[in-house]
Amino acid sequence: MMRGFNPWPMVRADLRRNRLLVWVTLLLVAVSVATGIAVISQERALRQGSARAADDFDLLLGAPGSATQLVLTSVYLRPQAIPLLDGDLLAKASSAAGVKYAAPIAFGDNWQGHSIVGTIAAFANRGGTLAPVQGRIFEKRGEAVVGAGVALALGASFSPAHGQQRAPDDEEGHADAAHSAVRYTVVGRLPARHNIWDTAILVPVEDVWRVHGLQPAQAVTEATHIGPPWDAKALPGLPAIAIKPDSVAAAYRLRGQFRTPRSVALFPAEVLNDLYLALGNVRDLMSLLVIATQVLVVVAVLMALLVGFLARRRQFAVLRAMGASRLYVFSVVWIEVALLITAGAAIGVLLGWAGSVALSYGLQSQVGFDLPVRLGAAEGVLVGALIGVGALVATLPAWLVFRRSIAEGLVAG
To answer: pTM for the full model?
Structure first.
């Protein structure tokens, strides 16, 4: 007769004896959970990372055209040809009520693949809220401030190359006489922003105009005053203007004021929301695929365990003949199944998190901003649901063993 009720020694012995079944079960469950974790966490990381990258752009002005293209080019520095905004609008935006600063965003050049952006000092330090970790903000022509990811030391001098991206087979970039004649000196380095602007080089917008032959006639020397106030009649066209309102009410008023046949005014968050809606549809589809995968995994695990337990029905019959109760045998089988599914889910969480971190690291250089990977409630629901279903599934093989008589088990052997 068996004494006591401790199924764990039998569970440990069974797991050691059936290592192949154990590892197959763990692998199936782990891969299923890891896939779900990766899909959910990456979608969340993309949302959070892209939203954080747009924090410095409260209101964006551009020429009529694609709002998505305007945001991608101006906020995320994705090289695309966009129509130019009439220059006089920069003067109007700078002098409009409720504006802290209106910063021109002018592209066209690079240094070894780093975009050179012409703007004003107020945008470079984000209205005084972003102090350089080294040096200072540019104060005159020929000075540059670099992002945290640009390999240029303070005091370094360089010339721009034409184009927003470095040619893959050109060590010096698309150099020409006009660009080679321009020299910038690095006077400051900005703190890390964890977005594409960490790889940008900021210079006075007047220098960008000059090198492209767009310089206003009265601005002819390095010592000439830079930045506002602007002469509306002398300003050339520019890709975009980043406006910093002094209040939420001012932001909405300015958006309405500059929505004209000559310009579009938008909150980047508006465009991002549209992208998120499309992304949400993809996420929902991927979630359905993940759920379908988990269902298939649960079925496969159940079938594998049933085959394994049916092959061991004589063993359970012998236990019963030695005095083990039906409840004891039921507990042994249920604990084995539940333990395998729970352990597989735990391994899957670790694999999914590690895979998502590796994927984020690989994608950051392509999307231009950090993809913060954090596990949240959605992942907890996913894992909890699988473990709960696993606990229910475990009752099926346990019940089959529970209801089989001793004689049936011994004859089957």
So the answer is: 0.70
